[in-house]
Amino acid sequence: GLGCSSLGGVLDRESESQSLRSVRMALDRGINFFDTADAYSMGRSEELLGQAVRGQRDRVIIATKGGSRFSPAWKTIVDSRSVLVPLRKVLKPFKRYFNLVRHTQKRYDYSPGHLRRALETSLKRLDTVYIDLYQIYNPTRADLEAGAFIDTLERFKREGKIRYYGIECHNAEDALQCPGVSAVQLAISLADQEALDNVVPRLVEEGVGVIGCEPLAQGFLTTNTGRALAEESARGRSQIRSRQQRASQFKFLIRPDRTLAQAAMQFAIRVPGISSVIPGMILPEQLEENMGALTATPLTQDELQRIRDSGRAFT
User: DSSP labels for 165-182?
Assistant: First the structure.
């Protein structure tokens, strides 16, 4: 699969035409699962994905998310993207601050009214009459235990506007608090193994699809470019250092014919019961590198054991 969070970013390094080419290239390579959200670039990610797969709807599985909303001030900033993009080189030193501000402007709303508006808008942006998998974005444990949004999602399903519904959880254990969903999206990577021993096996046993997001740990398990993007994220400095330290423990996986990113992809793909792995990417060469995981030297049993030993040390 392919994660589309980078499509249409306000200060993206590449043009939107580049994003369209990258998605179409993924489709040509046999990738058919695309994950986006109404929050990604304030909906521009959905619009670009819809454009990229237009005329090929029956070939793709589209997953998107709802439940988040941004302040009017942030919407104004995003609406000014045409002015900001030409200035991206000047604004580059402030990108991390920009992302930190964005993080503070986001709120979550799982009310029937908001989810209805979010779904209808997503359908319009994606230029489709149905969404294959509609996911609630980052609910808390309390939200999941209450399950108030389930009736709304069931209504969408009866209407034929969504085929299945699921949740994306930042806390792996929270994923077990919402029975009845068809899929759960969790961070699964060399640096994120918390869900592997208990959560994923239980979900698989219950017949729930598991989608592994952030298999490259948001860039920390990639090239210098990927790490630079990771360091511009909305994480605090201590979190960035912690992620860097975790990622550095897996450099032993690099070989002449296998990059760290490819080793990371191999690991995520091999998780028992995993339904799909959705790395994000910006450039076509990153897509090619990720696809190269299928032909690179496979991880050995000794390497896998060392990976799991390191992962358990994190928890």
Answer: EEEE-SSGGGGGG-TT-S
One-letter amino acid at 302 equals D
Count of structural domains within the chain: 1
pLDDT tens track for 262-295: 999 999 999 999 999 999 887 888 899 999 999 9
Alpha-carbon radius of gyration of the chain: 19
Phi and psi, residue 8, nearest 5°: 80, 20
CA of 215: how far to CAs of 85, 246, 276, 278, 312, in Å? 28, 14, 11, 7, 17
The CATH code of the domain that includes 207 is 3.20.20.100
Q: Using CA atoms, how far apart are residues 269 and 139, in angstroms rounded to an integer?
A: 26
Take residue 268 and report the two structure tokens written for it: 């995520």
Domain that holds residue 49: 2-314
Of 28, 15, 13, the residue nearest 287 (C-alpha): 28
Structural contact between residues 13 and 88, judged by C-beta atoms closer than 8 angstroms = yes
In angstroms, the CA 125 to CA 28 distance is 22
Phi, psi of 191 (to 5 degrees): -90, -5
The whole model's pTM is what?
A: 0.88
